[in-house]
Amino acid sequence: MSAAQPVIPGFYPDPSICRVGDTYYLASSSFEYRPAVPIHESQDLVDWTFVGNAITTSSQLADSDGTGSTGVFAPTLRHHDGLFWLITTDVVDGTPEQTLQHAEDVRGPWSAPVRTRGAGGIDPDISWDGADCYLTWSHFDAAGSEIRQARVDPYTAELLEEPRLLWSGTGLAFPEGPHIFFREGWWYLLIAEGGTERGHCVSIARGPSPRGPFAGAPQNPIFSHRSLPTPVQNVGHADLVECSDGSWAMAYLGVRPRGTSPGFHVNGRETFVAGIDWRDGWPVVDEERFVAASVDTSFIDDFAAPKLHGRWISPGVFPDTFARGTENGLLLESRVQCTLGVRTRDDAWTAEAELSIEDGSASMEVRIDRDNAYGIALDGSDAVATIRIGGMTWSLGAAKLTDNVHRLRIRARSTRSIRGVSTGPDRIELAVGDAHDWRVLGDLDGRYLSTEVTGGFTGRIVGVAVENGRAVLRRFSYTTGETMQ
After folding, report:
1. What is the rounded CA–CA span in Å between residue 209 and residue 185?
2. Does Transferase show up as a keyword for this record (predicted)?
């Protein structure tokens, strides 16, 4: 059996975990969204609390055009000599660079990032052997990918030697996501292989030093769900941590596909935790050791707090460049299209917004990237349900709105998969409301906002967008819903 519930539901992929005392900290990828690298903490590896984002300003991460699945890839979070260290990959224009930061407190402030030269690739890891600091990453080119390494100055990110091949994995595609750690006289190199789809898996090697040479475990891959009838698929990209009681645990990503074959996952790659036993010097995964309960992810935001909550994200730009609090709500002001949203985290959910437009146009939408979204577009008193798939846009039902503050609702309802019947993972309902009732403008198959259709590494977000104008978001709620058939 496998754990069916993530410990951190929703689009929080590529988990990297470390422990300080009795507290565990976990960092995730954020890709094109700002603020970047969300961090959670836990005392028991099951219940996790969001504590903030590591990258919060344009000086740390430059603005981009928000192209899907670019941006910040696969962090590694470590604690060494009294400091937290964070290394990530910034992928913007096809020339990925590793960026290093440090902080005394995981909540920040984090130092300005320093960038490596000569370590092109993704998924960087940072580790220490005495005074020596090692940068390990996944290098790729037309010939394939492999794990490389070099000593690095962590304060300047300058490589101190020429990179060397460390391990090419077991022969499966895309060896990536390396993490190095020490246990009982051995240095271990943990990697992901097989691609982050159904063939994803975790493999491991060990050697006498962090430089190797590394020999793979005889039972590789040590963890995978490929071809297994489990509700969680695509498991991999793992990181290990020694617990405060001397036992070990593993954080890893997985997805929960639903609907007709091949199955569709919509909330991105999520974080799970498993136990680790050691047999003959190799790790064995125990998926049942940490049982996560369903998490209530509901919230209501009236934007009365002076600072926008860290759950709010935007593709390509930081929210504070176009959103600010006022006495009437959150003012969204932009000369170009900007989106402000939150991650969807559940099989079924309802999001409601109260929005007024001062000039220009705005919308409420659920999106997986800029070319694929369902929404309700507002222009004056006109509301139109819209579909955007592959960059093509269609209009559905329309309504005239009479109130100055427009009530908009997007709801995701789970569907039941029946053999021989084509079903998506859910239905997306678009509705507008007044003081008396809701009017549904569209009811759509959710498969077209799934990773299996759109591609990429992210999940859905739901929120509002403003284009060439000003709008005030007065209230926003996200409610975990019951499964509906």
Report:
1. 9
2. no
Q: How far is CA 51 from CA 9, 24, 27, 163, in A?
A: 15, 12, 10, 35
For residues 171-185, one letter each, b for 16 or more C-beta atoms within 10 angstroms of the residue's C-beta and e for the rest, the string is ebebbbbbbbbeeee
* Nearest one of 27, 25, 2, 23 to 12, comparing CA atoms: 27
**Under 8 Å between Cβ of 338 and 317:** yes
pLDDT value at residue 2: 52
- List the structure tokens of 189: 């190199």
* Annotation marks residue 176 as catalytic: yes
Dump pLDDT digits (tens) for 75-113. Answer: 999 999 999 999 999 998 667 889 999 999 999 999 999
Return the ∠ at Cα 323 (arms to 317 and 328), rounded to 5°: 170
User: Which listed residue (14, 239, 352, 354) is catalytic?
Assistant: 14
Helix (H, G, I), strand (E, B) or coil at 227: coil
- Write the pLDDT tens digit of every residue in 342-382: 999 999 999 999 999 988 899 999 999 999 999 999 988 89
Encode 118-131: b = buried (16+ Cβ within 10 Å), e = exposed. Answer: ebbbbbbbbbbeee
Question: What class, spelled out in words, does domain 16-286 have in CATH?
Answer: mainly beta
Q: What residues contact 436, with CB distance under 8 A and at least 6 apart?
A: none
d(CA 57, CA 112): 10
**Catalytic residue from among 32, 97, 125, 176:** 176
Of 353, 365, 400, 393, which is closest to residue 379 (Cα–Cα)?
400
| 97-103 vs 114-115, strand pairing mode | antiparallel
pLDDT at 483 over 50: no
By 3-state DSSP, what share of the chain in percent is helix, strand and coil, each rounded to 5?
0, 55, 45
15: exposed, middle or buried (C-beta count within 10 Å: 0-12, 13-18, 19+)? buried
Residue 348, CB-side half-sphere exposure with 13 Å CA sphere: 10
Give the integer Cα–Cα distance in Å for 386 and 348.
21
For the chain, the domains span 16-286, 299-480
Name residue 219's amino acid.
Q
**DSSP class per residue in 296-323:** ---EEE---SSS--TT-BEESS-GGGTE
Percentage of the chain with pLDDT > 70? 97
Separation CA 303–CA 476 (nearest Å): 9
Beta strand 122-129 with 461-480: parallel, antiparallel or unpaired?
A: unpaired
CATH code for the domain defined by 299-480: 2.60.120.200
Write the DSSP string, 84-102: EEEEEEEESSS--EEEEEE
